[in-house]
Design a protein that fits this description.
Layout: H1 3-16, H2 18-38, H3 41-52, E1 58-61, E2 77-81, E3 84-95, E4 102-109, E5 115-121, E6 127-131, E7 143-154, H4 165-200, E8 202-203, E9 206-207, H5 212-240, H6 246-270, H7 282-294, H8 299-311
Helix pairs in contact: 1-2, 1-4, 1-5, 2-3, 2-4, 4-5, 4-6, 4-7, 5-6, 6-7, 6-8
Bound molecules: flavin-adenine dinucleotide.
């Protein structure tokens, strides 16, 4: 599939439901891309075909209870003991963490202090996953809190291409553009629902679309949707040419999730009281975009990535 085709699929999944989009983002994005980009030939052959058909479920465990935006400072440790690694620590927000057959787990090597990636297979003793309940967003996909206690992972399950956090960041830069496409899907859904609603809803004896202010609001929403589409199209083109940079992907993620939030908020208001009813879907998109705005790096973190690139100065800390 071309990058634009894959992006369109991601857009459509999120246009339907953010939880489905997020599930695919974890499976086909974070987990599969980690193995595809950083795994050995044997690891790729063993895991990727099953993951591509979703016969095998994957997860990506980077975030910790005390390290989200600064996951570069993660505290989960990996200590080599002969032919195995002993891993201890905690992870939070791990999509598919309770159900995955293979978890791409990131931990700090106690010998050299570098972040390394490990493939943890289902049923490994020392792996405890608890579902995070009480979410108001992305309610039909599960994330887990992981506790890792003397978890033993054989050396052949270490990702050979993951030598430092820079390699982890390469995976995240690659998946960030999918989040931009997903945000576009939420904005398109909200815009279309609002337009259809305003066509049939009557107030003051006229349908809402006959009011100039309503038309103006719909047109501004459409203009934002079009600008998001153009950014996504350009992402696809650059990916095709192998020219997509971290900075461009960060701008796209930052811009599209922020703009999607605005478009959805307008749609929510245009539906009046019905805008808060789940039957009309906009409120679900509104709740879902909040998580998407946060995960794979918040708007602020994307801003800091771009700011560092254009000024040459890191303002992270
Ligand atoms: P924090 O890092 O605590 O940020 C809180 C606030 O502080 C934010 O507004 C942030 O922008 C701001 N902030 C932080 N640092 C700075 C700074 N230097 N300057 C200014 N402001 C700053 N992780 C995984 O590893 N795997 C997954 O599958 C996964 N799935 C997720 C699914 C969902 C639904 C959610 C909500 C999260 C998921 N995550 C996952 C974790 C996600 O990537 C983090 O939540 C995200 O990176 C933010 O980290 P945090 O929640 O710890 O917030």
């Amino acid at each position: 599939m071309s990058p634009v085709a894959a992006g369109l699929v991601h857009m459509e999944l999120n246009r339907g439901d953010g939880s489905i989009g997020t599930f695919v983002g974890v499976q086909a994005g974070l987990a599969m891309q980690s193995i595809a980009m950083l795994g050995s030939a044997e690891q790729k052959q063993r895991w990727l075909p099953g993951m591509a058909t979703v016969a095998t479920l994957g997860a990506f465990a980077l975030t910790e209870p005390t390290h989200g935006s600064d996951s570069v400072a993660l505290e989960t440790t990996a200590t080599r003991d002969g032919d195995t690694w002993v891993i201890n620590g905690e992870k939070k927000w791990i999509g598919n963490g309770t159900v995955a057959d293979v978890v791409v787990l990131w931990a700090r090597d106690t010998a050299d202090g570098q972040i390394k990636g490990f493939l943890v297979e289902k049923g490994t003793p020392g792996y405890l996953a608890e579902r995070i309940d009480g979410k108001g967003s992305l309610r039909s996909v599960w994330q887990a809190h992981l506790t890792l206690t003397d978890l033993r992972v054989p050396e052949p399950n270490r990702l050979p291409g993951a030598r430092s956090f820079k390699d982890t960041a390469r995976v995240l830069a690659g998946t960030r553009n999918a989040v931009a496409w997903g945000a576009l899907g939420h904005a398109v859904a909200a815009y279309e629902i609002a337009l259809a609603y305003c066509r049939q809803r009557e107030q003051f004896g006229r349908t809402l679309v006959t009011f100039q202010i309503v038309q103006s609001r719909l047109v501004k929403m459409l203009a934002e949707v079009c600008s998001m589409q153009l950014i996504c199209r350009q992402l696809g083109r650059l990916q095709n040419e192998g020219a997509l940079t971290d900075t461009i992907a960060a701008i796209a993620k930052m811009n599209n999730t922020s703009k999607a939030r605005q478009v959805i908020a307008e749609a929510r208001d245009l539906l009046g009281g019905n805008g808060i009813l789940l039957d009309y879907h906009v409120i679900r998109h509104m709740a879902d975009i909040e998580a998407i705005h946060t995960y794979e790096g918040t708007e602020t973190i994307q801003t800091l990535i771009v700011g560092r690139d254009i000024t040459g100065v890191s303002a992270f800390a």
